[in-house]
Amino acid sequence: MPLITYRDALNQALREEMHKDDRVFLMGEEVGVYNGAYKVSKGLLEEFGEMRVVDTPITELGFAGVGVGAAMVGLRPIVEFMTWNFALLALDQVVNAAAKMLYMSGGQFNMPIVFRGPNGAALQLSAQHSQSWESWLAHIPGLKVVAPGTPYDAKGLLKSAIRDDNPVIVLEGEMLYNIKGEVPDEEYLIPLGKAELKREGDHCSIITSGKMVLVAMQAADQLAKEGIKIDVVDLRTIRPMDVDAITTSVKKTNRAVVLEEGWEICGIGAQIVDYIQRDCFDHLDAPVIRVHQADTPMPYAKALERAAKPDLPKTIAAVKKVMYIEA
Amino acid sequence: MAIKKRADSSAAKGLHTELLHTMLLQRRFEEKVAEAYALGKIGGFCHLYIGQEAVGTGVISMLRDDDYVITTYRDHGQAIARGVTPRSVMAELFGRVDGCSKGKGGSMHIFDRNVNFLGGHGIVGAHVPIATGVAFAIKYRGGNQAIVCFMGEAAVNNGAFHEALNMAGLWKLPVIYVIENNKYGMGTAVERASSIKDMYKRGETYSITSAEVDGQDVLAVRDAMATALERARDDYQPTLLEIRTYRFMGHSMSDAVSGTYRTKAELEEYLKRDPINLLEAKMKTAGEITDAQIAEMEKEIGLVVQDAWDFADASPEPPLEALYEDVLVETTSG
Known about the structure:
A: seven-stranded mixed sheet; 13 helices; globular; B: alpha/beta; Rossmann fold; two-stranded antiparallel sheet
């Protein structure tokens, strides 16, 4: 099976879906002539022309709204945000328009639109460029939210997102774009709303998504050397969340660590812990522990940034704590 | 409703009669809405269009069935001008299942796909980029339709307005932005909110041809629209029309008609230019209509409005299972 980058997997998904359906178009800052700020859209302008690969002014609220309008009358826009940090300016269109149009029109106007771009921290980009917005977005009824952690998942989930007749948020990762993984030549889709058990083990569950999947897999590898077997549940879709996958795993392992990139307060992990306490109360051998970003804006200095981020050592320590193993 | 340009005198008579009918229907419908609101049959926010009828009527009367209309939360009058039935608008206001939005939207969210009425939108300025996106889709498909985007003058101080107009000017999109300048954004006079008084000048910044129009004269509104539509259909060019008007009621049902931010004297001055009276006077002078014919029209409209009320009143409330319906659709494209 070919080994390709997460970036190229996304590029393949865009290209295939644009070939398949001429209602699909891509718009955003630098997606055309520049080939994408992170080169995800490389070559697409040349292939599809400027009506379907649209460079926009730096005007997130405006072009998100243009996407909503185009979707309202039957096109299938893919709106790229250079990062989700900039998308805050566009949230009125995402939340007040895209997510609600179907409901407030009594089912008349659905929104086949994708909003995508990198989410979360890269390296030393400091406070305004390093944020994880999944809990903000997953809070909203009327949206679907996916966070692929591997090239295979990135391609399959983006293709499904483009074909979905609802607004779908795709959270990518700057630090993931160069990651390589196996992606088959033949076409495939990954259904939205389905988690994947990325690793099987019966000692402890790690429930995670997006960029943190990689950290969870590394933790599972390292802990395996100590004889600790981890169930890694990759949610893949954050909304709608695959609650069955979470509870099935926790009922098997009786212990859980919830690993997320964002902040603790009202984070995605809080929701996951709620599902666990509701359905697995009698199965738990220890309180669930969450691993997350420090409750501060992201600092610039290397050591401070490292201290702020959820990482491999913090994840391993959390697993050991939940298993009552002395560090 | 699509009405052709003015031609000979009998055609003019027919056109004027139809325009008068639409404006009177809007007016009497909304008077009934105010009555229903007072009785508690309508809840939430409710913004009346009374006084501004010539704008919605004039603009929409120029459109083809395959054009699009999008507007703000002050949307009943335009919906009716576009052909959303008085029954389905009233049922929506009553929060009933036969409302155009199944009782889920209410006064601020009148939508009707059947007549390309893309909604009342409740966030000031936010629908301006959406309109621009519809225009983008028209051009993307190589069509020659247009979209009209109604907004109040207060929206033009909003970032979404400027971002949208920049793209429409840059990409040459077939959108007609209609600023209904009724002088007040809620209770704030335009002079207290905008650095310039002439809203149409905002278009120049974005290479968009703009014009100022008398919004109490329905025929003047139609003339301005004729030019704008040609530009949209033939050349994919946007237009900005500042249509000057006045609302005769408060901002919403909780707002006094005058006294706080505008004087009674000012209101009375504008009432002299009631758009319905102006058209009636013009038609009478031209011998196009008699008092008896107007009375007949009023009677017929009275029945339509009462029928809308009766229909809405008899329509059931949405069943509780509707709460979870239409959050998402189950479909995909393939």
